[in-house]
Amino acid sequence: xxxxxxxxxxxxxxxxxxxxxxxxxxxxxxxxxxxxxxxxxxxxxxxxxxxxxxxxxxxxxxxxxxxxxxxxxxxxxxxxxxxxxxxxxxxxxxxxxxxxxxxxxxxxxxxxxxxxxxxxxxxxxxxxxxxxxxxxxxxxxxxxxxxxxxxxxxxxxxxxxxxxxxxxxxxxxxxxxxxxxxxxxxxxxxxxxxxxxxxxxxxxxxxxxxxxxxxxxxxxxxxxxxxxxxxxxxxxxxxxxxxxxxxxxxxxxxxxxxxxxxxxxxxxxxxxxxxxxxxxx
Length: 281
What we know:
Blueprint: E1 4-7, H1 28-34, E2 38-40, H2 42-46, E3 52-61, H3 62-69, E4 76-79, E5 87-95, H4 100-106, E6 112-120, E7 125-133, E8 139-146, H5 155-161, E9 173-187, E10 192-203, E11 207-210, E12 214-221, H6 229-236, H7 246-254, H8 264-274
């Protein structure tokens, strides 16, 4: 089954997506598995923020994710916010009218940026963020706390961006909304965090699409020598690392004018997972 795309009405253009988190997700099994993990608070987790780190991504079915989670509750704690282990996120990405940041990524530039507003809806926190993937394969994140989600670039936002973003912030405009539900594992050794995203949905000013049954895992470590039971389980399940950008996938699905050749293999591979095909390579 391909990602399903629908058209929004004009009155919905760039409005904040409704937090209808149950529409594309049946999380009961994941919620049951999540209860096995010892809780960790946001304050405790942020003591090791990992803003300068190495990232390794995996994409799998929610069924595969369930199998992996069932083996890890002795190795990790799980973030709990407001009593919830499955937490809700909204992200608005910014780009230029010619999609320069998208092009940097799909053309596999080693040094690239993403600019986004991220809202942690369960804790009512929001940040304007810049993610910089360096040519040394490090991810550096700068962020500015905001009183509410930044839906349009303001003079204050542009002023902050000039200190952390080398391109012209004046050219940035809202491009893509993304919502998802996340579980966050925190290593009991303290050197690793694993985010697990499901219920992934993309919006533009006119269109909506969602990924049924897809889970995206990102392993974040401050050093590659850190022992990772999660990576051990990925190898045991024959699930291999794969580059995956929510932003690039959403743009390629919802914008007709962008170049998509580099994204087509990923789209076909995602379709196989959504159809229930075990696909590890």
